Predict the 3D structure of the following.
Amino acid sequence: MLIAGPNLTIDRTIWLDELRPGEVLRAREAHAGPGGKGVNVMCVATALGQPAELVAFLPRGRSGEAVGAWLADDGVALHPVPIPGEVRSAAIMLEADGRTTVLNEPGPPAGEEPWRSYADEIEARLPRHGVLACSGSTPPGSPADAYARLVRIAAGRAAMSIVDASGAALEEALAAGPDVVSPNLEEAEEALTGRADRSVEDAAQDVRERARAAANELLARGAAAAIVTAGAAGLALASAKGERWLPAPRVEVRNAIGAGDALVGGLGCALERGEALEEAVLAGVAAAGASVQEPLPRRLDRTRVDDLRRVLQGMSEVS
């Protein structure tokens, strides 16, 4: 699988008893490492035994050098596209009651010229892969149709494309006819309506109906298949074969950050192996379910993934 994850980060995960704004707080534990949605997808693919490559913008500053070395030490096959600046940071604060707060920096800008180099790198690497996963935000200054360009490159190479994005990047990608899109419910509704004013938690009674409606509308806008995730409730899948609702497996959640990336990783690996979409989605859900049981994102137990997949396959289909 080839992964387009343009916006790298340095993730700092911090465990707190309680986040109290305006106070000086002491963390119980902290962990730092390279991150970003593309890195998460890449690490999940590796954990599942699927060869994968990651194409990312790598800022030329000191932090870029450190992140490049970090990823190399982790065995990540990174193909960097250099840009000026420093790698952005993300602070992920996990409280004892399960509440999570994430602060994402925007990252250095990448305009037309860097994106031409990026697209060239994708096109050069794609012939070795059957799936291209476009994952995460694009840097400031990126062309709105950045992912749409990559989707068209994939189509020209007879590769399947997955787009996990939001905002203008998702809207433009739809017009290029991606094989699968996989936003969460809030991202999907923002792309479809221009509003992001309804959370999953605030409308628990109608989450399923909203997700199914969004998945069908994403299909109407150009996607060949649409997955709309709704947190612990489950996900809606819509394709030319119809639609279905998949409840999330019941697991102990230790860290939900990166669950959507694990889904893309599991989905992409299964599609790369030639599995049908419906089975590949189950593989993605199983990977996501296993990932949230880990204290850190992108780490998962492959045996647990296999166990969850068998459970999901045994569940009766809910229409």
